[in-house]
Amino acid sequence: MGTTCGSKIDPLYRYVRALVICFILLPCIQLSLGAKTRHFKWEVEYKYWSPDCIENIVMAINGQFPGPTIRAKVGDTISVELTNKLSTEGVVIHWHGIRQIGTPWADGTASISQCAINPGETYNYRFKVDKPGTYFYHGHLGMQRSAGLYGSLIVDLAEGEKEPFYYDGELNLLLSDWWHKNTHDQEIGLFTNPFRWVGESQSLLINGRGQYNCSLAAKFSSNTSISQCKLRGTEQCAPKILHVLPNKTYRLRLASATSLASLSLAIGNHKMLVVEADGNYVQPFEVDDLDIYSGESYSVLLTTNQDPSNNYWLSIGVRGRLPQTPQGLTILNYHPNSASKLPISAPPVTPVWNDYNHSKAFTNKILALMGTPKPPINHDRRIILLNTQNKIDGYTKWALNNVSLVLPPTPYLGSIKYGLKNAFDQKNPPENFDSINYDVTKPPVNPNSTYGNGVYMLGFNTTVDVILQNANALSANVSEIHPWHLHGHDFWVLGYGDGKFSADKDEKKLNLKNPPLRNSAIIFPYGWTALRFVADNPGVWAFHCHIEPHLHMGMGVIFAEGVDRLSTIPNEGLTCGLTGKMFSGQKN
Ligand code: C2O
Ligand code: CU
Questions:
Q1: Does the beta carbon of 552 lie inside 6 Å of ligand 1?
Q2: Average per-residue pLDDT in the chain?
Q3: 453 C-alpha to center of ligand 2: Å?
Q4: Span from the CA of 174 to the centroid of ligand 2 (angstroms)
Q5: Which residues fall inside 5 Å of ion ligand 2, going by CB?
Q6: 222 near 260, Cβ under 8 Å?
Q7: What's 104-128 look like in SS3?
Q8: What pLDDT, in 10s, does the model give residues 207-238?
Q9: Are 443 and 413 in contact, with CB atoms under 8 Å apart?
Q10: pLDDT surpasses 50 at 5
């Protein structure tokens, strides 16, 4: 007693005042005290590493691959002081899925939100995490994600808040693909005539670990490869075992940082309950296997209700492209079994790579959980983007409405804010394509397209629809999956369809009742996907295919809204070179 002071005051008044303090003010004070600034000092450099037991070079952060996991609570501020220790190239880091409300200069997109951080310089990323969920971060310059620049970012609910589901423990899986050819070599191939495609990856990695040519599965079926695997099985490529207790529920957080691969994930004998997609809750649904495309994240609940005397495989395999990459594997280890006890049944097999009906069925089950914000009923503007593979001066490119994106040297955020008229194309990029005459089932009749770097200027607070229209690539009978990702916003996925989108027929089929809110969505081969978002976040935002070589070949567009509303952009977000150098000079 007596913690709330005052002696000569009416006891009733004191009582009431204590009540007010305890029940009204304290929680507020605690809430704001609860929010923290989490500081990180990171250095990016190349390092020798063996992600799949074969030594290579990776882009490491503070000597680690994958980079350190950031874990924060809603309301926290993340502050990352990023120093570029690469000797000959710039670097940036994008916080994938974080909307950067009020901090567009911290989005980490080279040429869009900032200049690349030069060798030796430091940039301070400071932003708030305002929504719980499973996210990740990655390089956003050239092909630095393929080079291994990525890590997990997990945002927990604020103190005292509850998830709409229960679980006893958590496991975090960051998925990626890995090539033995380094990314500079890959990049040159993409920009050479004749074109050299990067090809399928050599390995799939789970938390940065895979086993090239000595797969765990091989180890399971033949003893000869065991010694081979042990020889090469350095600490760096040994799978991260998933330790679980029987009869518990685990939340598996899954995020895909792949450069190319669409993945299917399955766990031997176990079902999974999907509960989160891209940091938004979904109506729970049960699956045997789950499709996850580059740029997407999910949470699934796993109940350890199988025979506890066994361990089980968790496998990932390639979907949507003829697989030439072995499955990625790790083991679900039931306590108290030894982790080295191999499962009695073979790893789950990935559904046939081109069984698109399977993928569509999965995708169509993803619906928003009740309570998720609903989309506005009408749109103010509709942008239709035809996705095609094209040729420019003999070079192979990807284009949207026949424009292939080439980023300008001066970042858009500053050039729009300060009206630098010659920093990028001032005319609007095309809103549509010749939908009546274009046959999306055939290679383009005229494959020539043009380079461009124009911006779709969106009216602040307007509702924008984007219809992504897939088509045939340059070769006949080829249409690929493209996972599209939007920066700065979540969008509602209003629907998917086959063939050419028709406003008359398809409009009324769009889901305005419970469309999932996401930051990534795919287009199926020869199909379309309809998205809606509100342009309510001042800044300049990339919207692009998350397949890194595709983006590099021009598969993206730029949106901007409300830039004039930003009062100040920090200097280091505007200038290339000078300010950054001064900044890092002060630190050293
Ligand atoms: Cu994860 Cu612009 O990307
Ligand atoms: Cu693509």
A1: no
A2: 90
A3: 18
A4: 21
A5: 482, 545, 547, 550
A6: no
A7: HHHCCCECCCECCECCCCEEEEEEE
A8: 999 988 765 545 544 443 443 444 444 689 98
A9: no
A10: no
